[in-house]
C-alpha cells in the first residue's frame, strides 16, 4: 500500500495529466473569437509543443515518490488516530468555527455585497491565513461529523455558504474534504457516498466560475444571479469548467514563452518573509498575465528551463513528503492536528502550483515547514522528558529493591553479651 506521504505527488501528477487532456478537448470545441484575457492564452496554445512541460513536471513528481510504500499509510493513521480523533471532537468543532469566523471577519460587509471580486474589509495577512486554513476547517467539520453527524454537516453547510460568498472554487471540493475528515476519524464511508461527493463536486464547480462573471459580488448578488440563471448556468459554464480544469496547460505554456523572468524575481518568490519585508511588491505586477490571472508556478520555472521545472516539482514533492512523514510520527493531540494541517496545506499548495505563482505556493510550503518543525521539536522534547522520567523511576525502583533484599548488617557484639548483674551496695552496720 502506498504511503500517505506520496499521495499528494501522485495526485498532482494525475491532475496535471488530466489537465493536459482537458485542454486538448476544450481547445477543439471552444470559441475564442471574442477577445479577453483568457482567449489570449488559449488561442495560441499548441498541445504538442506543451508536452515537454508536462513530461518535466510529472517526472519530477514521480521521482519524489520513489519507494512509495515507505512511510505512514492511510490505514495506519486511521487505526492509530480514529478513536482519539473522535474523542477530541470538541476541539475540531472549535477549530472549524474559529476558521469560519476568520473568513467572515476578513470579508466583513463585503461578504454580502461587494463592487469587485476579492474585495476584503480586512485584507492582507488575515485574509491570506483564512483562505489557507479553509480546507482545514472542512476536514475538521468532517471529524466532528464522525461523532455528531448533524452538527458536523451543519458546520460544513455554513462553511459552504461563506465560501459561496467568496466565489471560491473551494466550494467544489468541500464535500470531498468533509468525507476525508470523517474517514480519518475511523467512520466507514461507503463507496457510493464517495461517488456522490465527487458528483456533487462536479455539479458545484460551475457555480463559483459563474459567480465571478457577475458585475457585482457577494452573497446577495451571487444568490440572485444563481437563482435567475439556474436553467442556463450549466449550459454556459460546463464547458468553462472543462476549460478551467485544462487551464493549467496553456497557462504554463504561455508563461514559459513570455519574456525571461529575472532571477531576482525567483529570489523574491522564494523569500519566506511577509511581503512587507521583501521585494515581492516590485515583481508581483510583472508576474501576471492579467489583473486576475497570475503566472503559474509551473510556467515560471519552465520559463527558466525544463531542468529547473523538474527540480522545482521534485523539491515540492520531497518537502511535502517529509512534512507529512515527520508530523505523522507524533501521536499526541498536537501531532494529530499538525498532520491534518500539513495534509490540507499540501493539497492546497498542489492546486496553487498549477494556476498560481511560486510566491503563493511558497507561502503554503513555509507554513507547512514551520508546523512540521514545531511538531518535531515538541515530540523530541516530550520523548526526552519521558526517557528522563522513566530513567529516574527505574533508578528509584532499583534502590527500593536493593533495600528490600539487603542482608542484615552486623550488630555490635556488646549488645549480645549477657547482662552483668550489679550487686547492690552493702548496708551500713547497725548502730
TrEMBL record:
Transmembrane segments: 47-68, 89-106, 126-144, 151-171, 191-211, 232-253, 304-324, 333-352, 364-381
Presence of the UniProt keyword Membrane in the record: yes
UniProt keyword list: Membrane, Transmembrane, Transmembrane helix
Statement: the UniProt record of this protein carries the keyword Plastid: no
Taxonomic placement: Bacteria, Bacillati, Actinomycetota, Actinomycetes, Micrococcales
Species this chain originates from: Cryobacterium flavum
Protein name: Oligosaccharide repeat unit polymerase
Region of interest (Disordered), ranges: 398-431
Amino acid at each position: 500500500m502506498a504511503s500517505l506521504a506520496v499521495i499528494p505527488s501522485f495526485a498532482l501528477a494525475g491532475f496535471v495529466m488530466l489537465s493536459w487532456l482537458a485542454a486538448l478537448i476544450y481547445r477543439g470545441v471552444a470559441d475564442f473569437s471574442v477577445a479577453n484575457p483568457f482567449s489570449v492564452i488559449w488561442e495560441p496554445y499548441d498541445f504538442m509543443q506543451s508536452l515537454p512541460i508536462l513530461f518535466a513536471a510529472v517526472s519530477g513528481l514521480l521521482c519524489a515518490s520513489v519507494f512509495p510504500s515507505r512511510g505512514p499509510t492511510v490505514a495506519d493513521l486511521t487505526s492509530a488516530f480514529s478513536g482519539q480523533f473522535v474523542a477530541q471532537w470538541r476541539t475540531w468543532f472549535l477549530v472549524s468555527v474559529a476558521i469560519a469566523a476568520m473568513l467572515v471577519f476578513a470579508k466583513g460587509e463585503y461578504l454580502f455585497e461587494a463592487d469587485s471580486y476579492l474585495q476584503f474589509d480586512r485584507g492582507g495577512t488575515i485574509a491570506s491565513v483564512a483562505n489557507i486554513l479553509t480546507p482545514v476547517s472542512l476536514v475538521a467539520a468532517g471529524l466532528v461529523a464522525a461523532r455528531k453527524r448533524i452538527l458536523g454537516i451543519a458546520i460544513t453547510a455554513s462553511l459552504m455558504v461563506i465560501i459561496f460568498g467568496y466565489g471560491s472554487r473551494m466550494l467544489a471540493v468541500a464535500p470531498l474534504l468533509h468525507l476525508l475528515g470523517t474517514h480519518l476519524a475511523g467512520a466507514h464511508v461507503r463507496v457510493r457516498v464517495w461517488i456522490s461527493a465527487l458528483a456533487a463536486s462536479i455539479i458545484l464547480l460551475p457555480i463559483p466560475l459563474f459567480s465571478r462573471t457577475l458585475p457585482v459580488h457577494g452573497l446577495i448578488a451571487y444568490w440572485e444571479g444563481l437563482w435567475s440563471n439556474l436553467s442556463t448556468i450549466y449550459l454556459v459554464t460546463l464547458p468553462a469548467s472543462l476549460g478551467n480544469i485544462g487551464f493549467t496547460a496553456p497557462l504554463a505554456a504561455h508563461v514559459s514563452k513570455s519574456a525571461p523572468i529575472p532571477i531576482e524575481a525567483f529570489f523574491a518568490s522564494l523569500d519566506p518573509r511577509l511581503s512587507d519585508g521583501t521585494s515581492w511588491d516590485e515583481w508581483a505586477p510583472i508576474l501576471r498575465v492579467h489583473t486576475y490571472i497570475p503566472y503559474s508556478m509551473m510556467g515560471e520555472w519552465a520559463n527558466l528551463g525544463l531542468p529547473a521545472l523538474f527540480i522545482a516539482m521534485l523539491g515540492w514533492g520531497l518537502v511535502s513528503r517529509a512534512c507529512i512523514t515527520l508530523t505523522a510520527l507524533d501521536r499526541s493531540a498536537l501531532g494529530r492536528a499538525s498532520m491534518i494541517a500539513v495534509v490540507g496545506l499540501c493539497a492546497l499548495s498542489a492546486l496553487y502550483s498549477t494556476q498560481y505563482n511560486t510566491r503563493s505556493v511558497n507561502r503554503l510550503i513555509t507554513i507547512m515547514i514551520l508546523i512540521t518543525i514545531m511538531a518535531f521539536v515538541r515530540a523530541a522534547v516530550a520523548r526526552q522528558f519521558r526517557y528522563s522520567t522513566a530513567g529516574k523511576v527505574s533508578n528509584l525502583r532499583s534502590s527500593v529493591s536493593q533495600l528490600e533484599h539487603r542482608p542484615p548488617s552486623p550488630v555490635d557484639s556488646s549488645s549480645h553479651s549477657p547482662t552483668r548483674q550489679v550487686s547492690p551496695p552493702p548496708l551500713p552496720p547497725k548502730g
